[in-house]
Prior knowledge:
Distance between the termini: 60 Å
Oligomer: single chain
Strand content: 15-25%
Radius of gyration: 29 Å
Shape: globular
Helix content: 25-40%
Amino acid sequence: MSSLSLRGAGLPVLALFLSWATCLPVANAADPPIVPALLPESTLAMLRIRNISEFSRMMSDTATGRMAKDPEIAPFLKHLYGSATQAFGEVEKEIGLSLDELRQIPQGEFCAALIDPGEGNEPQFAFFLDCGENIKDAEHLLDLLVERAARDGETVRVNKHRNHDVQTIGDARIVVKDGVIMMATRTELAHALLDHWDGLVDDAKTLAKKDSYVTIMKQCSGAKGERPHATLYVDPLGFVRMGTRGNLGALAVLALLEPLGVYGVKGVGGSLIVGVEDFESIAHGHLLLDDPRDGVLKLIAMKKGDTTPERWVPGNVASYATLYWDVRQSYTALANIIDTVRGEGTTGRMIQGGLDQRLGIDFQKDILRQLAGRVSMITWMEPPLRFNSESRLVAIQVNEPKDMRLLLDELSLKFVDSMMPASHLGTEYYRLPNGQGRRRNRNRNRNPEAQPAEQDPNRTPRQPPVEMRRPTPSIGVVGDYLLITDSELLMQEAIKTNRNGGGLAEDLEFKLVDGKIGRHLRGTEPGGLQFNRPHEALRGIYSTVRSPELMAQLKLGADQGNVAVKAFYEALTEHPLPPFEAIAKYLAPGGAMVADGPTGLHFTAFSLRRDPVAEEK
């Protein structure tokens, strides 16, 4: 494929792109052409918004949209929007349309797709944008595109395909039909799409009829049959086949890998549904897999289990995730693959050799047999609040906690300088190095006699840095879990919660989200669950944005001529951000689950809707 060459048409192309990417709610559009029914089954990837007008209207009623209308927040956002409008002034002079007019051009379906042309190693591109009654403004942009391209020496001509005008601009073939702009990067592709559109071709071999696409889209519909507002589809094997076409060496390698199950991934897709009942948004993702699974697909060994948070999980976490996984099955499958290629016993020797040499650990006894098959992860905001207050903890369930403690004790004797014993409420753990001291020593060792450079009196003085959290890594056994964290305070919080109770499992917000997850299980038991509080994750960042230290740094950037920083600084100065509670009241908790079903792995994530007005009443 020749690359899409529109070098001289930057502003009109940018304008057309902005018109759909940043559109505002507009009038209802005419029925879209349902692009998946036009695309060939050789489509490699597709991103589609069913109706931009409807999608935009729904998005304006999400938390972000409602915040933009809040009297405490709106002045700040309007100032930023005014800066964007002002920056757009040069483009507006060039194209004759304002930013608001551009945003109102899209009125219906949008779709972009990559298609295997059947020859060569590069995909073709197709693009559809339903402009409805605003097609005249879109055609005005296309006219500017033609003028600029011709002025810059690009190929510009109009050909006929039956009764359709096909405009060639560089490598693009553009057609305007029924209020829709269609673009393709090859004449044959443009003609084929038009033939499908006019009903002259049997639709049996379109993307809409392809088994993998149909299965994925069915899995990614709403629990009650809601139609997604946006969908995504990818054919990974199609990319592989196209990329290796004509390459005998690559084809030979693929032939050798076929028995290992590399062709078992049939497709990937997802969807987004906005504004359904008490949900802000619902996202689905599906990995379509062969059944039965073989080779590398046996590495996927998700199990089912109780996803109730463990006793040690603090109730004030910013997020929590847990996953059940049969590690032994995955290890066995991996060993079979490696040993098939490298010889019997290779995997065991590779892993055990490294552990023996570095740590003196028996992989089978000390690690593999200890893994109980559950891993949990939490994030927590370490006080005091700072930009990087978010700390993380990974917890691995073990079969024999006592043996794991003994293993840590043995390692501490070998790494006396790296594992410092500590305890909290009677539970022992180890502090680990954070690496910062070693970096300082390395810098000092490079030039131990270096002296501080004299300050240039004319140099702009450095502003005081924003206060940052220093990681304090720790490791220890709490209950039947091995905890590894970058925050000693979080380790202590987990120990305290394990002793006193009052953890996340008893939290009302978690119980609410957990109940909502049950509505999306589709008859399957999850192997993993995730819970999040976006307002907790945002709290530290928000406090930093309002800090004098950051304002001083923003002022420095503004004084140095950075346009974006200047706009942000002026917005903060003229319209200071309101207290955090003004934003937090719009942010509701969310959740996610992942399950292993007959057709593959399915992922569902959602955020709940919070209505401050209703809550105040």
